[in-house]
Design brief:
The complex is a heterodimer. Chain A contains 13 helices and twelve strands. Chain A is α/β, with parallel strands linked by helices. The radius of gyration of chain A is 19 Å and the shape is globular. Chain B is of the alpha/beta class. Chain B folds into two domains: 314 residues, Thiamin diphosphate (ThDP)-binding fold, Pyr/PP domains (Rossmann fold); 33 residues. The chains are: A alpha/beta, B alpha/beta. At the A-B interface, helix 3, helix 4 and helix 5 of A face helix 5 and helix 6 of B.
């Protein structure tokens, strides 16, 4: 099953479980969304529960906040993560603070915001961004990014049932290309828990979303060409993030590389590096290194050069080992 | 005839005729004369004595509370306050036109609506003094009230964010077939925010039973309406979004009450939003942090504040023989005493315990939050006298 089908299947299961659950966003109705993730759901659950909205991201999230405050599960789709910024105020000042500012009188835990993020589809500046770090600076939000169809379904179902608002960023590059065995039935995967996808002894690499297959490829190169044993961690949840799993691994390997697609400065890798140096200082054999996007808007014709690919990661692995 | 592709009326003309801004002629509904009697052609809304007196007592209480708490802020006992003065008729009249189970999303100056629903003097005071009995756990500035029991969404300082939320909340009520609607208060200044336009459009397109209630009080802090918009008030915006609209004299409780009842019926039976624009004058400052002398004249304040909604309504009730002025004077004195007593009670109650700092960020505090709290507590132990109100 590819990621589109896995996400569609997850939404279908959740919609059949909750009698009032709604999906709203631009073109999510009859058309099924520009990536077809909500395909056929309007036909199955009706226009009152799966509906197109006017072209207003702040309106979508504002409306979804209010709807979620009634306790009805809500999926708000933002067509591209690059277009979430008109809703920044609703997300940061409202969604994230609802429970806190009301003293627990009200909450919008029933809200899940889905949005495709990241490059790799020739999307240029405004169909390629990875905005997770902006939101990771906001207590009250949870942020989840899956790496493959199996993870996408289980994590999305957890995000929907989690009693907190969740931003669910989907690596659009993998929508059709990533395939895995996915159960038809309901299952969930834990939020806030990283996944060690390969154990190793020489170096730890952390990534999430579409970059996980990049670090897998780099690790394979390093093993085959240099016999370097690498521990690979898919962070899965950016907020809250699994400090324990990452620091346990670094204490064992003594080395850490963080890979993310977003620009390097103030990316979420900075936060990981700061925490790991504090928790693992005496275990470190080399400085913590990052392989990330350049500090530029996401370029169109130089997309390949911009992306922190497996070759850049492989070179950084050797640099860390040589240190 | 409708052009279905563009969703517009389709009347072809061969003459160039722009629509001028004065094409729309919006009237203001007013039922009560300033002397407390009804205009000859006015129809008095159906209202019983109990409701009528409850409205009066709510206005009476809020005026006294505002007056006293403004003074408390000046004495340094609370950090901030906002008065409802000049708008107590619009707020109380609209709250009275709703069902108790209808949801209210307010902006911040609508404490009269909350009191009408049963928020007690003690509850106001606990919030104002951010003590440990405050429903909001002392986390927000004074006047940021809220209560799930009273269907009153907790206030959020950012303006207009409540507007699309009210649309979404009302949509949920319709989806669940609740026999209730939502009312959303905001000022004419907030109507310049993008969320206002997003919220109205979303409600209209998705047929949410929400009443948008604009308190056009003339000022956004110091900015007068003529620097806020050029069109015909906020009512004209409603028409543009395809929302039935009514402008009402906000100093006329009965007109506001009638308008809200009409709007509620419209929302519930037609599953559509409705916009009410109440024309008021913000007699007080924006908040305790500004002084209107800097941006408007005493003459202006005198001219517009004399049209006093409270006394207009009081005269109406006296003519109806529904209140006894002597009793009301005694009642006023009693409320003043109660407020003073309760200020003393509320300010003596301790702040919420420090552990509550990390609660309600998520449904349960994360490991990181517990660790941060532990670090903070250890730090405080080094300087207990310098963090004296922590317990």
């Amino acid at each position: 099953m590819n990621m589109l089908n896995a996400l569609n299947n997850a939404l279908d299961l959740a919609m059949s479980k909750h009698p009032h659950m709604c999906i709203l966003g631009e073109d999510v109705g009859f058309f099924g969304g520009v990536f077809r993730i909500t395909k056929d759901l309007q036909k199955k659950y009706g226009e009152d529960r799966v509906f197109n909205t006017p072209l207003t991201e702040q309106g979508i999230i504002g409306f979804a906040n209010g709807l979620a405050a009634t306790g009805i599960p809500v999926i708000a789709e933002i067509q591209f993560a690059d277009y979430m910024f008109p809703a920044f105020d609703q997300l940061v000042n409202e969604t994230a603070k609802y429970r806190y500012r009301t003293g627990g009188e009200f909450n919008v835990g029933a809200l899940t915001v889905r949005s495709p993020y990241g490059g790799g589809i020739a999307g240029g500046l405004y169909h390629s961004q990875s905005p997770e770090a902006y939101y990771a600076h906001t207590p009250g939000l949870k942020i989840v990014i899956p790496r493959d169809p199996y993870q996408a379904k289980g994590l999305l179902l957890s995000a929907i049932s989690d009693p907190n608002p969740v931003l669910f960023f989907e690596p659009k590059k993998l929508y059709r290309t990533s395939k895995s065995d996915v159960l038809d039935t309901y299952y969930s995967l834990p939020l806030g828990v990283a996944d060690i996808i390969q154990t190793g002894t020489d170096i730890t690499i952390v990534a999430w979303g579409a970059q996980v297959e990049v670090i897998q490829k780099a690790a394979k190169m390093a093993l085959e060409q240099d016999n370097i044993s690498i521990e690979l961690i898919d962070l899965r949840s950016i907020l809250p993030w699994d400090i324990q799993t990452v620091t346990d691994s670094v204490k064992k390997t003594g080395r850490l590389i963080i890979n993310h697609e977003a620009p390097i400065t103030n990316g979420f890798g900075s936060e990981i590096a700061a925490t790991v140096q504090l928790e693992c200082f005496l275990s470190l054999e080399a400085p913590i290194m990052r392989v990330c996007g350049l500090d530029i808007p996401f370029p169109f014709c130089h997309e390949k050069e911009y992306l922190p690919d497996h070759l850049k990661t492989y070179e950084m692995i050797k640099r860390s080992m040589r240190y | 005839m409708k052009n279905t592709i563009n969703h517009t009326t389709h009347i072809i003309t061969h003459t160039l005729k722009p629509i001028t801004t004065d094409a729309l002629s919006i009237e203001t509904l007013s039922l009560l004369k300033t002397n407390g009697s009804l205009y000859p052609e006015a129809v008095c809304p159906t209202i019983d004595q109990k409701t009528a007196v409850k409205i009066y007592h709510t206005m009476q209480f809020i005026r006294l509370l505002d007056d006293r708490m403004q003074a408390c802020q000046r004495q340094g006992r609370i950090s901030f306050y906002m008065q409802c003065l000049g708008e107590e008729a619009a707020v109380t009249g609209s709250a009275a036109g709703l069902h108790q189970q209808d949801m209210i999303f307010a902006q911040y100056r609508e404490q009269a609506a909350l009191h009408y629903r049963g928020f007690t003097l003690q509850q106001f005071m606990n919030q104002l003094f951010s003590n440990q009995l405050d429903l909001g756990k002392g986390r927000q500035m004074p006047v940021h009230y809220g209560s799930a029991d009273l269907n009153y969404m907790t206030i959020s300082s950012p303006l207009a964010t409540q507007i699309p939320q009210a649309s979404g909340y009302a949509y949920g009520q319709r989806l669940r077939k609740d026999p209730y609607c939502t009312l959303c208060y905001f000022g004419e200044g907030a109507a310049s925010e993008g969320d206002f336009h997003a919220g109205l459009n979303m409600a209209a397109v998705h047929q949410a039973p929400v009443i948008f209630f604009c308190r056009n009080n003339g000022y956004a802090i110091s900015t007068p309406t003529y620097e806020q918009f050029i069109g015909d008030g906020i009512a004209s915006r409603g028409i543009g979004y395809g929302i039935d609209t009514l402008r009402v004299d906000g100093n006329d409780v009965l007109a506001v009450y009638a308008a809200t009842q009409y709007a509620r019926n419209h929302a519930m039976t037609q599953h559509k939003p409705f916009l009410i624009e109440a024309i008021n004058y913000r007699s007080a400052a924006h908040s305790t942090s500004d002084d209107p002398i800097g941006y408007r004249t005493k003459e202006e304040e005198k001219k517009f504040s004399t049209n006093n909604a409270f006394y207009r309504y009081e005269t109406f009730l006296i003519q109806k023989n529904w209140i006894d002025l002597k009793e009301e004077i005694e009642r006023t004195e009693q409320i003043k005493q109660d407020i003073l007593t309760d200020v003393k009670r509320a300010e003596k109650i301790e702040k919420p315990i420090i552990d509550q700092m990390i609660e309600d960020v998520y449904d349960k505090p994360t490991t990181q939050l517990f660790n941060q709290l532990d670090d903070l507590k250890k730090h405080i132990q080094h300087y207990p006298e310098l963090y004296s109100h922590v317990h």
